[in-house]
Structure formats: C-alpha cells, structure tokens
Amino acid sequence: MLSKPSETLADDPFGGRQPTSHERMSGQPWDASYQHGPAPWDIGDPQPAIVRLASKGGFAGAVLDAGCGTGENALHLASLGLSVLGVDVADTALAIARERARARGIEVEFAAADAFHLERLGRSFQTVLDCGLFHTFDGDERPRYVASLAKVTEQHGTLYVLCFSNEGPETGPHPVSQDELRAVFNPGTGWRVVAIEPDRVQTRFHDEKGAPAWFATIKRI
Length: 221
Ligand SMILES: C[S@@+](CC[C@H](N)C(=O)[O-])C[C@H]1O[C@@H](n2cnc3c(N)ncnc32)[C@H](O)[C@@H]1O
Fold this sequence. Notes:
Blueprint: H1 21-26, H2 48-55, E1 62-66, H3 72-79, E2 83-88, H4 91-104, E3 109-112, E4 125-131, H5 141-152, E5 153-164, H6 178-184, E6 191-201, E7 211-220
Parallel strand pairs: 1-2, 1-4, 2-3, 4-5
Antiparallel strand pairs: 5-7, 6-7
S-adenosylmethionine is lined by residues 20, 30, 41-42, 67-69, 73, 87-90, 93, 114-116, 131-133, 136.
C-alpha cells in the first residue's frame, strides 16, 4: 500500500507527501479509514469537550480545525456563526464533511491540506483546534507540526489540543503525557501552555464515558 518510487503522483495514495508515522505503521493512507463506514474516532457528533468550550466563548475570530476528519467539530463551530476552515489529508473525509454541511445548510469551508505545511494555506487564524491529530504524530513529527501551526496562528491566538491522555484506565491509542505536550509547546517554539486539563474523548470503541484525554489551551506568543 505504501507508495513506491516508480508510481506517478496521480497513483500515489499519499498525493506526493511523506506518509506520516501512523500511515507507515498501519500500512495505509488516512483516507482508507473513511472508505468503509465510520472510522473508530468518527462519533457522528462534535466532541462534548469542544461543545462545552464553545458554549463558554472559547472560540473567536477565524478558526482552523487541523485534521478535521468528517467535520463534526468544524460544523458545530460554524453553526454558532464562527468562520471555520477544516483541513485534512483524507479526501473521503472531506467529501463527507462537505456533504454534511450542505445537508445541514451550514456555511463552512473544508480543504485538503497537509498539517506539516499549513503555511501553504496563505491564511492565519485566531483560534486553532486540534482534535485527535497531535497524538497521532511521533516524536520526530511533533516539532515540525508545531512549527507549521505557529506559522498560521496569529500572535496571542489560541490553540486547543484535545488528545488521548497517558493517565487512567482505558487509555486510547497514542497516549500523550503532559510533559510531552510541554516539551514541544514552549516559548522556544513560539507557544505558552496556559492550561492542560483532564477531559474525555468519545470514540466508537470506548463506552459512553469515553477515553481519558488532555485538553490543552496553548497561546501563540
Ligand atoms: C484521529 S482523526 C480525528 C479526526 C477529527 N478531528 C475528529 O475529531 O473526528 C485524525 C485526522 O487527522 C488527519 N490527518 C492525519 N495526518 C494529517 C496531516 N498530515 N495533515 C492533515 N490532516 C491529517 C486524518 O486524516 C484524520 O482525519
């Protein structure tokens, strides 16, 4: 399944980009997760942690949802009147997201983009959401992703990262520690961690309590 050097760009399931560590591990592109019914993380609703934060006014200005999947979080934020762009490398997920927006009459943008090259969007955002993307990246990828996020987040803008936590029973795949978050988001990389709160992530493979998560609030300095 991984791209071979002889393949043309049109044949390449990775569209010419480097497969991520998750794709190398699973042996298939992210898009494959969306081709045969809902992906394990695709609960068909926005994450409760994000709904709660949005209800308290946590999102402002132009919003980027990095790794938006089928778009439930982006759709929820857009339904509140926010200007939202959701980006992902999985075209099938983006097609589902656009169809949901059309069916619900919600104005929102979805675009194919690589989270390692967000500067290619040529835009900047006051609020950026990462729901379940950061935790899929390994130690080598994280600094590149964090630098890419820094290029599109306005000064004093806010990044929210909702990721699986390493604490508690029933942790999800790719559990992340608070120290790992603080190791990449720090003043040296253009960020200040404001808070890392324990929360939950709902999945299709956990019970109704979901999986233990960290919900990090991080400021661009
Ligand atoms: C665990 S899923 C979470 C999806 C969505 N945020 C949600 O909460 O349902 C991770 C998403 O990140 C996307 N993704 C992975 N690597 C990416 C990259 N380099 N650039 C953009 N999106 C990426 C995947 O295609 C997938 O949709």
